[in-house]
Write a structure and sequence with these properties.
By secondary structure, this protein is an alpha/beta fold. The protein has eleven helices and 35 strands. It folds into three domains: about 120 residues, Copper amine oxidase-like, N-terminal domain (Copper Amine Oxidase, Chain A, domain 1); about 70 residues, SH3 Domains (SH3 type barrels, Roll), CATH 2.30.30; about 260 residues, Alpha-Beta Barrel (TIM Barrel), CATH 3.20.20.80.
Length: about 550
């Protein structure tokens, strides 16, 4: 009997022990469930790098180099990855050309001189080469070139980089607190923060706040344990944005006449005018023709008095050879940019509309380089950059000379000149800008060119062509909208083409066949609706004084605001 009781007690004890083990395992599993795995920061002696509160240490392509004076050097590859994807390095000359939002800089591994936005100065440390890698003296140029703040904390071998154009909030802890790895009480403690220490406030996470301690450690504290949250730095706006949709009209005049005198005139609804102020000089090395010397200042005063922004057109006058020579030489590009900036500041225009046409297809990348180098100079003084381009997939000198994705990336706006579907050189009569063709190319911009819709301005023609077919030959002439009825027989019948969204006219006269695809309020209204349908940035019209009358601009305003 006693033996049976002893066996029973033994079994009960074993069951109890098993039960205790199970409870323990459940508790351990619960702790692991509630407290996510802690990943220990082990970088094998690497310098810890934080960029805008993101730990990128293991993502760096090269190790950071810190010299004996605690100067921080970042590899060219990492600068390219995080700060300037368009940076260029010439192995033969040692020159480095780099840009940021508001700066362009030229430096070299062979000298400690640097040029920033056209101004020369000396660096304490020049770019260096180590084991085949180029390193930039980042602690010295971080704010000068890239508009970022860099702090190196020697005790923890940590680099903290913050963009100075991004909003930053700070706060104070109101008692001694533990900084947690995750926003949970059972999470691993990273370090202790003393009362009143100022921290960078990153974001809310429920009852917790993600913060960055002064040594660069990022973690979580209870929101109730922080106080005095305030904005230390606001987001920076670089350009004066157009209110609402862009409604631009080009105002072209030749270099041999005065700027248009528009005193007393208003253009209802238009918010941007683009006069043909500046152009490349033939066989120049970057010199620019100033077409605003005669009447330009009065034109700008008229525009500003009517609350129109002035985006001065800068044209290459289709000078293919001169354009190529300038674009392929950095020094000449730099001269051209410097001359343009001087004119922009002299006349106090609000932006530049670059209109380079008839270029070599092989100059596509150097044209992009010109815009990459121009954009920060304009943005630095709050000016807008818009760039005119043609439809994709056309001829070499008319279409394949543009990298639309890069242009849209660096410019504030890319203007699709949606006209001359059938132009002067066409051997077949056709429309200047059919609805289906315009829409198909908008889709190409958004699709194959990967351009954001809010960067695209749709250019619309205020003209058409009257085609003449005779003895197998096809010729045409431009007809402005205001002159259409002067170029057609009276009482001529027009038929609506619902695919092209235009009226079509055809008639015989003296053995020849005449054809016209009509641009008028109805066809233009359809194109405006395309801009609205695809959420584009706005519309532009080529060109002022081709419209039928002043009521046209009220019509455009109403269509945009529907």
């Amino acid at each position: 009997m006693a033996k049976r009781m002893k066996e029973t007690n033994g079994k009960n004890k074993t069951i109890f022990n098993i039960f205790i083990v199970i409870i323990f395992l459940i508790l351990v599993a619960g702790v692991f469930y509630l407290s996510p795995n802690y990943i220990k920061e082990d970088y094998d002696g690497k310098t810890k790098v934080l960029i805008n509160n993101n730990n990128v240490t293991v993502k760096m392509k090269k190790d950071v180099y810190v010299d004996d004076n605690n100067n921080v050097f970042l590899s060219l590859e990492d600068v390219k990855n995080y700060f300037d994807k368009y940076i260029e390095y010439n192995e033969q000359t040692g020159e480095i050309i780099t840009t940021s939002e508001i700066h362009i800089a030229k430096m070299s591994t062979r000298t400690n001189e640097i040029t920033i936005n056209g101004e020369e100065e000396k660096l304490n440390s020049a770019p260096i080469q180590q084991n085949g890698t180029v390193y930039l003296p980042f602690s010295e140029i971080s704010e000068k070139v890239y508009d970022v703040d860099l702090e190196y904390i020697k005790d923890t071998n940590t680099i903290i980089i913050d963009s100075l154009d991004r909003k930053q909030e700070v706060a104070n802890v109101n008692k001694n607190v533990k900084l947690k790895y995750k926003p949970q009480a059972l999470s691993r403690t990273l370090e202790k923060i003393e009362e009143d220490e100022q921290v960078v406030y990153i974001e809310d996470s429920g009852d917790w706040a993600e913060i960055r301690a002064k040594d660069g450690t990022i973690g979580y504290v209870k929101k109730e344990d922080i106080t005095n949250i305030q904005v230390a730095r606001e987001d920076k706006e670089y350009i004066s944005k157009v209110n609402g949709k862009v409604n631009l009209v080009w105002d072209y005049y030749s270099e041999y006449v005065n700027a248009p005198d528009r005193d007393g005139e208003t253009i209802d609804g238009v918010n941007v005018v683009s006069p043909s102020f500046f152009s490349i000089l033939k066989q120049s090395n970057g010199e620019i023709n100033d077409n605003a010397t005669r009447g330009g200042k009065e034109y700008i005063e008229w525009a500003h008095n009517n609350n129109y922004q002035v985006w001065a057109m800068f044209s290459n006058n289709s000078l293919k050879d001169t354009t190529s020579q300038i674009l392929n030489d950095y020094e000449k590009r730099e001269t051209m940019i410097e001359n343009l900036m001087n004119l922009v500041e002299e006349y106090n225009v609000d932006g530049v509309n670059v209109d380079f046409e008839n270029m070599n297809a092989e100059d596509k990348d150097v044209y992009s380089r010109f815009l990459i180098e121009l954009a920060p100079r304009l943005k630095n003084i709050g000016k807008t950059l818009s760039v005119d381009v043609t439809a994709p997939d056309g001829s070499e000198t008319w279409s394949l000379c543009f990298d639309r994705n890069t242009i849209a990336d660096v410019a504030d706006y890319i203007v699709f000149m949606a006209y001359d579907q059938y132009g002067q050189s066409s051997s077949k009569a056709g429309t200047t800008a059919g609805y289906n063709w315009v829409e198909a190319n908008i889709k190409k911009f958004l699709g194959q060119e990967d351009v954001d819709p809010d960067k695209i301005i749709l250019g619309i023609p205020l003209y058409m062509r009257l085609w003449k077919e005779e003895d197998g030959e096809v010729t045409s002439k431009v007809v402005n909208i205001k002159d259409m009825y002067d170029n057609l027989p009276k009482n001529q019948v027009a038929n609506w083409d619902d695919e092209l969204k235009q009226y079509y006219v055809e008639y015989e006269d003296d053995g020849a066949t005449y054809k016209m695809w009509v641009e008028n309020n109805k066809s233009i209204g359809e194109k405006i609706n395309l801009a609205k349908q695809y959420n584009l940035a706005g519309v532009a019209f080529w060109e002022k004084d081709r419209e039928e009358n002043d009521d046209f601009w009220t019509f455009v305003k109403d269509e945009l605001n529907k």
